[in-house]
Input
Amino acid sequence: MIVYFAPMEGLTDGILRRTHQRLFGSVDVYGLPFHKLTQSVGLTTREKRDIAPEENRGLRVLPQALTRDPGQLAAWLALVAELGYPCAELNLGCPSPTVTRRGRGSGLLRDLPALRCFFDRLFADPLPMPLSVKTRIGYESPEEWPELAALLAAYPFAHVTIHVRTTREQYTGGIHPEAFDLALRRGLPHPVYNGDLRTPEDVQALLARCPRTEAVMIGRGLLADPALARRLRGGPEASEAELRAWYTALYEGWRERFHATLALGRIKKLMEWPAGDSIRRKRLLRRAESIEQCIDAVLDEQQAREG
Ligand SMILES: Cc1cc2nc3c(=O)[nH]c(=O)nc-3n(C[C@H](O)[C@H](O)[C@H](O)COP(=O)(O)O)c2cc1C
Output
C-alpha cells in the first residue's frame, strides 16, 4: 500500500519531512502544503524554499496549488516540471472560509458546471506534467458526491485523493467512508483514501471494507504517532526515546530557521492538533515554557490516557 503524508500548512515543511524520513521513514510520498497562485504565478519566499529540490533531497514529494484559474495552474505546472518533480496536485479540499469565499480550494465544489468549465479549459491543451487532485466529497452534503465523482472521472487526473468529508464538515464533522466505495466503483483513477486514519486498526478496517484500496493519505494520525506508517508495514511502535528525538529535532530545526518563540509555538500546534479535544493536553501545553516541558506534557498525558 502507498502511504502519503498529508500536507499540513504551517507544519509539514521541509524540516518536518526530512526529520520524519530520517527517524521513522515508511512514507512513500510527502505532500507539500499548497501554493496560493496569483496572477504573476510568483511564489512567496517560503513557497520557493519549500519546493526547492535541495529542501526535498531524497524525498518523494507532491507539490500542490490552490487556484481557480486554468492558465495560472498550467504556468505553475511548467515551473514544477522544470524543477524535476514527476507529478503535482490541484487542491479542491481546503475548507477555510478565506479560501472558499474566493471560489478556490473546496469553494470550487459549490458550482459543478463552473468546475467542469475550469477542467475543460485546463485539459484543452496537453499539460506540462501529470496532475492529481485532492478533493472533498461535496460542499454542503455528501449527496453531492456521485455527481462530483462522475465529473472527476471524466478527466485525466493521475490520481484522486478523497478526504471523505464535505466542506461544511471541516476536519472534525461527520465522516463518510462509503464515499470511497463509490470512488472505486465509479473507476476514479487510483483513489487515495484520506480522513481520520489514526491507528493500524483503522487502516485494517478500511482494507476490510474496501480490499481494492491502493493508497492512503494520513495527516493528524502521523502527527500523533510518527511511527504509524512504519507500524502499517509491520514495524515497531515509537519508543519514548524516539519520540523525544523527533520532537527535539523538529524544535531545533525550526529554532534555527525561525526563532525560539515561533519554534515552540509550532511544536505546540503540532502536539495539539491531533489531540482533538484533550483539554488536559491543551492545559499542560499552554503552561509549557520549553521544549522539554512540552515533550513531558505530551508523554505524561499519553501515559495517563493509556492508563
Ligand atoms: C493544520 C492543517 C493544515 C492543512 N493544510 C493542508 C494543505 O496545505 N493542503 C491540503 O491538501 N490539505 C491540508 N490539510 C488537510 C490535510 O492534508 C488532511 O486532508 C486532513 O487533515 C484530513 O486527514 P487526517 O484526518 O489524516 O488528518 C491541512 C490540515 C490541517 C489540520
In short: Residues 6-11, 33-34, 64, 91, 93, 134, 163, 171, 194-197, 218-221, 273 surround flavin mononucleotide (CB under 6 Å). The longest strand covers residues 131-136.
